[in-house]
Amino acid sequence: MKISKRDLEAAAAEGRIESGQVEGLWAFLSDRQAHGPGFRAAHILYYLGGLVAIGAVSLFITLAWDAWSGWPMLLLGLGMAGVGVGLTERFRAQGLRLPSGVTITFAVATVPLIVYSFQQLIGVWEGDRLVTDYHRYIDWRWFYMELATLAAAAIAFWRYREPFVLLLVAVTLWYLSMDLVRLIEVDGGSWSDYYDLRRMVTLYIGILTVGLAFWVDLRSSHSQRDYAFWLYLVGVLMFWCGMTFTSSDSELAKFVYMLINLTMIFVGAALRRRVFAVFGGLGVAVYLGHLSRFFQDSLLFPVALAAIGLLIIYAGILWQKHEARLQAWLFARMPAPLRALLDHG
């Protein structure tokens, strides 16, 4: 729910609050919104700048970096990590919580580069993989880089409690699961066998990540900061991709896929997490696209879909009309921690 200053002024005009309370309440709400979760103009710039900087030391590293292997790359990586930590401390001292979360995440993102450089320096890195391959290829030899990144992220989160760090945790856990799969692959297996295995691992790791996000959500339901957002985002992405790219000739399996996506939409509405609704909506669209092939010469199919869409809109109207009574009925049957989470949301 978004509240404007005009809403407070209207409440004062109706005698719901004292007119002298409007400015104080608005200042309080403005301060909470400035530091709370959301995507306002300044927040978009913070995240855009942070993602560009993080990408510069991870996704967009070029082959030229390997010419600097050893001490030069190690010192450069440590220097960039130091800059990230230094900026984090400075921003926190100024009360700038969101940019401090972005800069400490940037510092943690340099850890794979630092570990790779150290491994090269002491002569333990062997093989044809380069640092530029870390985000491109699955290989069990990335373990040390991934474990070090998780350790650094844990320390950073313990020290600063910044939610953005959990984005790296979720992505690194995904990488780690894929590299673990590489250990159990044996010679002679077909590419499709390993593709299906990796897809299933992605799906189950996505479920576990969503479960972790929900647990974090419950534990932090009274916090002003949204610690579960990035875990939900990556977890739902992994689960949905693993499920969507499953090949099946069974129409029943495809129908179950659609039902799961519908469930995701309702879960998103209940938890007030748009990421579930977005991917659930995409999944329903995928299923409808599949159905359209069976009705490509039918005039009734688009009409039927339009009617279903209008019925869904009408269901939304009915829900809004009876929302208070339905919510009260549902809340009375929920566990107390879940009620606290939904009330807070």
SSE inventory with pairings:
Blueprint (H helix, E strand, L loop, with lengths): L4 H9 L8 H14 L5 H16 L14 H23 L3 H13 L1 H11 L21 H18 L4 H20 L6 H29 L9 H16 L6 H21 L2 H19 L7 H22 L1 H9 L4 H9 L1
Describe the structure.
By secondary structure, this protein is mostly helical. Among the domains are: 1-35, no CATH class; 309-345, no CATH class. Helix content is 72%, strand content 0%. It contains 15 helices and no strands. Helix 9 (191-219) packs antiparallel against helix 10 and helix 10 (229-244) runs parallel beside helix 12. It starts with a helix and ends with a helix. The model has no long low-confidence stretch (mean pLDDT 79).
What profile does the largest beta sheet have?
A: none
Secondary-structure class: mainly alpha
Q: Tell me roughly what share of residues is in helical segments.
A: over 70%
Q: What gap, in angstroms, lies between the N and C termini? A: 9 Å
Which blocks of ≥5 consecutive residues have pLDDT under 50? none
The average pLDDT value, as a whole number, equals 79
Which of globular, elongated, flat, extended, rod-shaped describes the shape? flat
